[in-house]
């Protein structure tokens, strides 16, 4: 890792807060396949199922044999930067504000030429590079050529850093710090160099083990926040909303009941109160301020993270009502994403499998440790993704869901007691 | 019901032909015994896998805005045992088969009743787990006279002055530590004194550790089993005389309700 970003200079209050601009966002429907993969941090290109030719740019029929049987397949992105240039003029407002900008032509080993942004650490052309897919501020896929050896940090290049939501130097609200997961995320963000971390505390009379250790962190400020209480959410938004750069929604009410195993709807309502309405309350209270500060210098409002569950994809019947509440939250997060996208504020959804905590006690391993989940959250912020499936179970469910959602429903549902 | 009839007989006939004149008498005043229903007021803590009593919540319907241009109002939600609240006999399994045991069927005569206020504030200050015993009650009676049948017995602990919810709940890893009556005391009040009910400033009529008593939660068990009531999360008991105040405590008329938040106040006579 190179020189970490320094704490940005304080804002000059005499100057107008800039409004966000976005890179060109129009894509054809087929080109969204590139975005779909980039949202999960992968480079995928279409491959012809008949002749094997790799395709770029995305298209309807094979460039070699005209077959329409094209499938998105993961690519290693290796190739050669054959030519490069530096953009010094642009009509697009987004680029005008950020010139100069290095771009290049890469010949991938798979046989296609792509235009890519070139990381500043890449040697002058010609040279070997690796092309990665990333989401830009418009949440669309772009290609980035990075050095072919070693790990590349997008934060090292100021242009590319803008495609990340690096927590370094940022002011972050973690909505529930009382769970093991919330605490692990706070520690992770602290280690990643967050400038300030507000930590929500509901029901202060219930002591949570480990919570007191958070007070020792230099960036930690514990604030009252109960996402089931609109008044509490709006009170906090009124106090700190104009300062928050990243919201990490760790609120999670998890009970382990299906339909027949619990009389009544009271527990299910509480799951919805926290997991669904909690997100709605937070979004109504905090999103407007995030949008207003989306271009507020180097320490701008930049991201919203929801810790959901892999059970949002398909109902896990022993945790049936919980799964439903997380599915509701997933749906609402898509609305939030649509409302934040014009400002360039990224909504990142995290879909962990069973976590090594009390409520997943009877789930079989492998289970995700809170620390592993926290690392996935920090990595997602440092990268440029929208959807994170941390751990083996989540990866397995994701693959099965992509292949055949109905089959996943039946496989998971078959285990119901 | 029996107690109600007794009360009627006892009332001095014709003392106040006009009830309003009672309240207008010099020195007679009202004391509010009710905590504000607020989202910040703590609800009872039970193991998390159990059903939970919802704390008070309020969601705006409109506030002179596009949702309702000229008016302000809220939808509120809460458990029946939230804030300052009333416990009906049906709340406990021991009272489940009694007649007229839910808040919609309770005899209205019981909604106004005299109160004996036993001051345990010094003892509760010294010991959060303080238990009121028969001996304490008899000492009270020695000073203030025998507790009349169909009276509320209110345990003053000044617990309501603990404005910080953490200190009010007073939980540690062994549970809650708040004062309450011991089992013998409850049996005495029910069987020997035939009280109307028992009221506290804490979150339950039972002590914080009463889950470990024999029987568990004796105040709920015996009081409700005998058709008696509970009042919890009261405040301002320090403003009441030991005897002589009338308590107005009328729960909401909820169909088959086990209790309800309510406005409780006392009519206090001139000294």
Record keyword descriptors for this entry.
heterodimer, A: 417 residues, alpha/beta, Rossmann fold, 2 domains, seven-stranded parallel sheet, five-stranded mixed barrel, 11 helices, 30% helix, 20% strand, globular, B: 271 residues, Glucose Oxidase, domain 1, nine-stranded mixed sheet, two-stranded antiparallel sheet, 7 helices, 15 strands, 25% strand
Secondary-structure map with pairings?
The complex is a heterodimer of chains A (417) and B (271).
Chain A: H1 32-38, E1 44-48, E2 54-55, E3 70-74, E4 78-87, H2 93-96, E5 101-108, E6 113-118, E7 127-135, E8 141-147, H3 158-161, E9 171-174, H4 180-191, E10 196-201, H5 211-214, E11 220-224, H6 230-240, E12 246-249, H7 266-292, E13 303-307, H8 320-340, E14 346-350, H9 370-382, E15 387-388, H10 392-403, H11 405-413
Parallel strand pairs in A: 6-8, 9-10, 9-12, 10-11, 12-13, 13-14, 14-15
Antiparallel strand pairs in A: 1-2, 1-3, 4-5, 4-7, 5-6, 7-8
Helix pairs in contact in A: 4-9, 6-7, 7-8, 10-11
Chain B: H1 2-10, H2 19-24, E1 29-32, E2 57-65, E3 68-77, E4 85-87, E5 112-119, H3 121-126, E6 131-132, H4 134-144, E7 152-156, H5 165-169, E8 171-172, E9 175-176, E10 180-181, H6 183-192, E11 197-200, H7 218-225, E12 229-232, E13 245-249, E14 259-261, E15 264-268
Parallel strand pairs in B: 5-7, 6-10, 7-11, 11-12
Antiparallel strand pairs in B: 1-15, 2-3, 4-12, 4-14, 5-13, 8-9, 13-15
Helix pairs in contact in B: 6-7
Walkthrough of the structure:
The complex is a heterodimer of chains A (417) and B (271). With 417 residues, chain A is of the alpha/beta class. Chain A folds into two domains: 32-161, no CATH class; 171-413, NAD(P)-binding Rossmann-like Domain (Rossmann fold), CATH 3.40.50. Chain A is 30% helix and 20% strand. Chain A has helices at residues 32-38, 93-96, 158-161, 180-191, 211-214, 230-240, 266-292, 320-340, 370-382, 392-403, 405-413; strands spanning 44-48, 54-55, 70-74, 78-87, 101-108, 113-118, 127-135, 141-147, 171-174, 196-201, 220-224, 246-249, 303-307, 346-350, 387-388. In chain A, the strands form three sheets. Chain A has a seven-stranded parallel sheet, sandwiched between helices. Chain A has a five-stranded mixed barrel with strand order 4-5-6-8-7. Chain A has a three-stranded antiparallel sheet with strand order 2-1-3, with helices on one face. In chain A, helix 10 (392-403) crosses helix 11 (405-413). The radius of gyration of chain A is 22 Å and the shape is globular. The N and C termini of chain A lie far apart (49 Å). In chain B, strands 1-15-13-5-7-11-12-4-14 form a nine-stranded mixed sheet, with helices on one face. In chain B, strands 2-3 form a two-stranded antiparallel ribbon. Chain B has a two-stranded parallel sheet with strand order 6-10. In chain B, 20% of the residues lie in helices and 25% in strands. Chain B has one domain: Glucose Oxidase, domain 1. The longest helix of chain B has 11 residues, at 134-144. Chain B is α/β, with parallel strands linked by helices and 271 residues long. Chain B contains seven helices and 15 strands. Chain A binds chain B through residues 203-207, 226, 228-232, 255, 264, 266-267, 270, and chain B through 39-40, 42, 45, 48-49, 51-52, 54-55, 57-60, 165-166, 168-169, 171-173.
């Amino acid at each position: 890792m190179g020189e970490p970003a320094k704490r940005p200079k304080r804002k000059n209050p005499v100057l107008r807060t800039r409004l966000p601009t976005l890179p060109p966002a129009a894509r054809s429907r087929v080109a969204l396949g590139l975005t779909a993969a980039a949202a999960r941090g992968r480079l995928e290109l279409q491959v012809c199922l008949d002749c094997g030719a790799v395709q770029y740019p995305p298209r309807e029929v094979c460039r070699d044999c005209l077959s329409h049987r094209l499938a998105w397949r993961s690519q290693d992105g290796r190739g050669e930067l054959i030519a490069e240039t530096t953009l010094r003029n642009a009509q697009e407002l987004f680029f005008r504000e950020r010139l100069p900008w290095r771009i290049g032509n890469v010949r991938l080993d798979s046989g296609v030429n792509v235009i890519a942004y070139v990381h500043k650490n890449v040697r002058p052309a010609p040279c070997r590079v690796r092309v990665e897919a990333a989401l830009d501020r418009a949440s669309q896929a772009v290609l980035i050529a990075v050095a072919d050896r070693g790990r590349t940090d997008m934060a090292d290049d100021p242009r590319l850093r803008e495609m990340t939501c690096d927590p370094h130097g940022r002011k972050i609200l973690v909505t529930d710090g009382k769970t093991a997961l919330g605490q692990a995320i706070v520690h992770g963000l602290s280690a990643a160099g967050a400038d300030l971390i507000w930590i929500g505390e509901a029901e202060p009379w219930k002591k949570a083990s480990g919570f007191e250790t958070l007070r020792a962190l230099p960036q930690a400020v514990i604030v009252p926040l109960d996402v089931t209480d609109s008044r509490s959410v709006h009170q906090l938004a009124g106090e700190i909303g104009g300062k928050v750069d990243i919201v990490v929604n760790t609120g999670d009410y998890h009970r382990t009941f299906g339909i027949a195993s619990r009389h009544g709807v009271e527990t299910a309502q509480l799951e919805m109160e926290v997991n669904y309405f909690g997100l709605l309350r937070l979004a109504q209270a905090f999103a407007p301020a995030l949008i207003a500060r989306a271009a507020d210098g180097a320490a701008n409002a930049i991201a919203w993270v929801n810790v959901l569950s892999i059970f949002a994809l398909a109902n896990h019947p022993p945790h049936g009502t919980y799964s439903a509440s997380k599915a509701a939250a997933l749906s609402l997060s898509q609305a939030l994403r649509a409302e934040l996208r014009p400002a360039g504020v990224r909504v990142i959804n995290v879909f962990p499998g069973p976590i090594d905590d009390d409520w997943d006690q009877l789930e079989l391993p492998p289970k995700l440790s809170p620390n592993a989940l926290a690392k996935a959250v920090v990595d997602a912020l440092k990268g440029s993704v929208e959807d994170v499936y941390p751990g083996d179970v989540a990866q397995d469910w994701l693959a099965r869901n992509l292949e055949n959602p109905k089959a996943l429903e039946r496989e998971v549902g078959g285990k119901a007691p | 019901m029996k107690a109600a009839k007794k009360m009627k007989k006892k009332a001095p006939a014709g003392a106040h032909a006009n009830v309003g004149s009672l309240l207008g008498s010099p020195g007679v005043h009202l004391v509010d015994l009710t905590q504000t229903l607020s989202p910040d007021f703590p609800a009872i803590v039970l193991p998390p896998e159990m059903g939970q009593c919802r704390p008070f919540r309020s969601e705006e319907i409109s506030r002179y805005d596009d949702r309702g241009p000229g008016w302000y109002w809220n939808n509120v939600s809460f458990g029946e045992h939230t804030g300052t609240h009333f416990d009906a006999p049906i709340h406990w399994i021991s009272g489940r088969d009694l007649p007229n045991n839910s808040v919609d069927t309770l005899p209205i005569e019981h909604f106004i009743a005299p109160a004996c206020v036993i001051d345990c504030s010094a003892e509760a200050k010294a010991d959060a787990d303080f238990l009121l015993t028969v001996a304490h009650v008899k000492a009270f009676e020695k000073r203030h006279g025998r507790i009349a049948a169909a009276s509320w017995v209110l345990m003053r602990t000044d617990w309501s002055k603990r404005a910080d919810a953490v200190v009010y709940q007073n939980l540690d890893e062994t549970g809650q530590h708040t004062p309450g009556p011991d089992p013998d005391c409850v049996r005495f009040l029910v069987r020997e004194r035939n009280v109307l009910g028992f009221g506290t400033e804490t979150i339950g009529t039972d002590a914080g550790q009463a889950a470990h008593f024999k029987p568990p939660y004796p105040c709920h068990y015996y009081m409700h089993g005998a058709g008696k009531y509970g009042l919890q999360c009261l405040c301002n008991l320090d403003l009441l005389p030991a005897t002589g105040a009338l308590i107005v405590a009328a729960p909401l008329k909820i169909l088959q309700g086990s209790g309800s938040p309510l406005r409780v106040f006392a009519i206090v006579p001139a000294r």
